[in-house]
Design a protein that fits this description.
Elements: H1 2-36, H2 43-79, E1 89-91, E2 103-106, E3 109-113, E4 124-125, E5 137-140, H3 146-156, H4 160-163, E6 165-170, E7 179-183, E8 193-198, H5 202-210, E9 219-227, E10 242-250, H6 255-265, E11 269-272, H7 282-285, E12 294-301, E13 307-316, E14 319-327, E15 330-335, H8 338-360
Parallel strand pairs: 1-5
Antiparallel strand pairs: 2-3, 3-8, 4-13, 5-6, 6-7, 7-8, 9-10, 9-12, 11-15, 12-13, 13-14, 14-15
Helix pairs in contact: 1-2
Length: 361
Amino acid sequence: MGAVFFMTLLVIVLIVAIIFIVVNLGLVIAWRVRKKKGKAPKKWWFVLASIFLVINIVLAAIPIGYFGFLRVTNASYDSENDVTQTSTSLVWPMGEYEPTTQWFEIEGKKYIIFRKGFSSEDFYLDYGREQLGQPIANIKYPKGRWFNDMMWILLSGSTYSDQNVSTISPVSNDNHFDFLYAELNVNTPTLRGDTYHEESTIEATKAYYNNLDNYNTGTVTCRYAVYRDMSSVDETHHVNPYEWIDRSLEIDETVFSKLKKLKETGDTVVIQMPEIPEDYPPAAQVGKPYRGYFDIRMKVRSLDGITIKEVSFVVIDNRVYLSSTSSGGELTVYPLTDELNDYMMNHIIKSLEENTIESEN
């Protein structure tokens, strides 16, 4: 709201300044014309008109300069984010009060967002640009109110609708599920948009990805943080004292399902987070688990490579606990059975520790 008020104020200043520039310029011209005709106009007319003319030129230069700066900035941004044009152009549909990006229609079929950000679904979309096919359509917002469009034209040379054109592409997958992907920027290495699915079959597709049988549970990726070597880091730059490590492991196919089931049916306990001694030398921490203990996120990928499922666990005092929540110096966790704990320690944690040591060397 503050930005809108500021931009509106600049427009008003510009309009008023232009009006006074015209008026004062007219007075200056009239004074000179009268003087040439020998009518001896009063000099203070000319002085006041000239002063106000200069003042209003300066006032007009402020919004003009600001708008010019924004237009140059937006133009340079737009040149880096060219839209792939297609022969099909769509418009986002209207919601209750404004356009919505929750769904759209194409070729007589309705597509809705497959998984919302705070969805309760037990899977996450996780695929890259290599899964996208050739763009089939563009979609943009409908024309806005005249004032909003005018403001956008002042700032960037085109309307908000023309500035925000998304590209729609099919998502390739082995199951031939009817996915479409809409993204605003097609020139980034990572995807930044939303995945949509044809409405009539979306529940069947979600059921497939919710079923753990459709995942490769024998191959997992473990992601965890270890302390980085800060000795060569410039102190003037902020750098996290840790770095992320990703390890792919082959494990017993039943382990991941046991962990998921434990989190669904098990009971939680509260344990204390370990503390690193204050006199512990930073050099000795390099390559060791961040904060003094393994905090690992393990994920498995669906057979078609589109989604993942994951569990998180911590390792404290040679015991593995499934993570739940943390507060202050305490962790709420699910303890593993002795049998499952032994497998995790001997086959997963041991392998991660060995790989971490090897990467240091």
